[in-house]
């Protein structure tokens, strides 16, 4: 028996592939056909995602979280109100008519109600050594907020301004182009963008007395509007160019700062589904188009050719949501340290249920010396609004959802707010270079690294999980634990979870049974403990050819 034993190593790389047929996948054994709550790691392999934990007390008011921002603490919107916290515990309601008043006097200012808010988009701006937050919510007037080093709050709605005959009300999207605030998705003119004044000299009329920055003024000589003849669905500035995303077209705009506007179409055949999916990553803009995730660079170079789509491998996950776009709330963020893009689909018909999303990692492939997108799926990590910012010099990802009133911090811990994370990693079915010949699997060796205690299991699926083939029960894997590595900050010597003498990556043997023509290993949670983070670098299969029938 031993002389007939063959060993095959499956390197975990390539991510989730739902588009290739079974025959194509035979030659891609490291890709996955089911990859839930794993991410494609920059170090190679598949790594189980980290969890999230509440970072604040519950935001006052009722209803779900409609906006969140890392800003001198945390700025959050819940229900019809806006709140700010410095210490993650005490919230101050800031949607009030106040001009540079001390924190202790905020409660004396009149409340500016913002009813029927959809969700907020925020844009930060520095002016005269002070950081401001401009915001829109899809229904009400744009507003500006600041909290100064002198512990003074300011909040004001841009109420009196109009551009032409269009009142500045109901904008859904906002961004800055150089030194001008740009608004889009306006209720009264959905096909145009509106840009603010550039010069201080424009702040002259009585209605401008309360304005601190020219970016609050849309009546000046350097403000205006630009119509694209297509409903605006998003705006983003990238490399000194303003990109305007519409339902069925995309434009780039230059020259707002000098009045010499130039609007050039990127494409007139592809648009953007939702402006909250537009993110900058890998030196490019990634956005959700009607045919999947696209980058601006490829879309511009290839126009509407399908080759511009980067998410073909997971179109089975994305396309059904796009076809029912009115049913879903799309939101996204990037995790810069991981070169990763995350996209969520919140089902508005079941907002408190288990929500899903996808992770897109921009990874480098040594063998081809090129970058490619690798995908996986999220389940149970519900996020209807999300923000990535820096706090204390470290990247911090915050989110809120439609079932809790707390603000959560992602990439923290190994549970979803104390809930065990279920996960699955199933590699593609493979024939091990012996088409039409039965294989008997004797042993599986899992090459992995744990960051704490992990009790996982391995299933061996034969012949596409056929009902007429014996499918063995799941095999528990011996507990993995954190290796003791001298000098590593996470290692606490004497801790019960630390395994002394362990290598960084460990090999765990599991003896198996059964046989079939094509075979797929499947790693999944046992739910015996709350598993810590671990990654899977490769899976080694020991088998004999032409064994048991």
Structural class: mainly beta
How big a fraction of the residues is strand?
35-45%
What oligomeric state do these chains adopt? single chain
The largest β sheet comes out as: 7 strands, antiparallel
Describe this structure in words.
The protein is mainly beta and 549 residues long. The protein is built from three helices and 44 strands. Strands 1, 3, 4, 36, 41, 42 and 44 form a seven-stranded antiparallel beta sheet that branches. A five-stranded antiparallel beta sheet has the order 2-35-43-37-38, with no helix packed on it. A hairpin with a 2-residue loop joins β25 (279-281) and β26. The two termini are 15 Å apart. The relative contact order is 0.15. The mean pLDDT is 89.
Name a few traits of the molecule:
elongated; 549 residues; seven-stranded antiparallel sheet
Brief rundown of the structure:
This protein is mainly beta. Strands 1, 3, 4, 36, 41, 42 and 44 form a seven-stranded antiparallel beta sheet that branches. Strands 2-35-43-37-38 form a five-stranded antiparallel beta sheet, with no helix packed on it. Strands 10-14-13-12-11 form a five-stranded antiparallel beta sheet, with no helix packed on it.
């Amino acid at each position: 028996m031993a002389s007939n034993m063959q060993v095959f190593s499956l390197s975990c790389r390539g991510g989730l592939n739902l588009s290739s047929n079974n025959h194509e996948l035979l030659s891609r054994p490291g890709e996955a056909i089911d990859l839930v709550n794993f991410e494609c790691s920059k170090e190679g392999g598949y790594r189980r995602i980290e969890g999230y934990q509440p970072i604040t007390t519950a935001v006052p008011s009722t209803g779900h979280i409609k906006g969140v921002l890392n800003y001198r603490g945390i700025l959050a919107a819940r229900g019809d109100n806006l709140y700010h916290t410095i210490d993650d515990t005490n919230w101050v309601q800031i949607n009030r008519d106040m001009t540079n008043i001390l924190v202790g006097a905020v409660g004396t200012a009149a409340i500016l109600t913002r009813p029927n808010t959809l969700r907020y988009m925020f844009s930060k701006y520095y002016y005269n050594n002070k950081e401001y937050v401009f915001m829109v919510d899809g229904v009400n007037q744009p507003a500006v907020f600041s909290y100064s080093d002198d512990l003074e709050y300011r909040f004001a709605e841009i109420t009196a301004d109009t551009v032409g005959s269009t009142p500045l009300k109901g904008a859904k999207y906002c961004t800055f182009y150089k030194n001008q605030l740009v608004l889009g998705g306006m209720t009264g003119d959905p096909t145009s963008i509106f840009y603010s004044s550039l010069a201080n000299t424009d702040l002259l009329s009585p209605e401008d007395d309360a304005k601190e920055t020219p970016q609050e003024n849309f009546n000046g000589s350097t403000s205006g509007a630009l119509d694209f003849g297509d409903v605006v669905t998003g705006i983003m500035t990238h490399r000194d160019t303003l990109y305007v995303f519409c339902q069925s077209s995309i434009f780039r705009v230059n020259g707002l700062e000098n009045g010499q506007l130039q609007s050039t179409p990127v494409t007139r055949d592809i648009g953007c589904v939702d402006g909250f999916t537009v993110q900058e990553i890998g030196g490019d803009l990634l956005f959700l188009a009607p045919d999947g995730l696209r980058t601006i660079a490829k879309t511009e170079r290839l126009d509407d050719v399908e080759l511009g789509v980067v998410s073909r491998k997971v179109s089975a996950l994305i396309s059904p949501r796009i076809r029912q776009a009115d049913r879903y709330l799309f939101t996204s963020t990037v995790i810069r340290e991981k070169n990763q893009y995350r996209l969520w689909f919140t089902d508005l018909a079941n907002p408190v249920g288990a929500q899903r999303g996808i992770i897109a990692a921009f990874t480098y492939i040594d063998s081809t010396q090129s970058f490619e997108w690798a995908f996986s799926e999220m389940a149970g990590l519900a996020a209807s609004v999300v923000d990535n910012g820096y706090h204390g010099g470290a990247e911090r990802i915050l989110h809120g959802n439609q079932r809790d009133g707390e603000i959560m911090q992602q990439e923290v811990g190994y549970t979803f707010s104390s809930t065990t994370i279920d996960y699955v990693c199933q590699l593609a079915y493979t024939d091990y270079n012996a088409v039409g010949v039965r294989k008997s699997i004797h042993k599986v060796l899992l090459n992995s690294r744990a960051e704490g205690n992990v009790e996982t299991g391995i299933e061996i699926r034969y012949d596409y999980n056929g009902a007429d083939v014996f499918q063995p029960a799941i095999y528990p894997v011996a507990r993995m634990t954190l290796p003791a590595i001298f000098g590593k900050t996470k290692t606490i010597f004497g801790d019960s979870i630390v395994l002394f003498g362990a290598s960084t990556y460990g090999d765990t043997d599991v003896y198996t049974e059964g046989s079939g023509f094509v075979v797929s290993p499947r790693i999944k949670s046992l739910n015996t403990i709350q598993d810590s983070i671990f990654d899977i670098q490769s899976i080694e299969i020991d088998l004999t050819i032409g064994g048991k029938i």
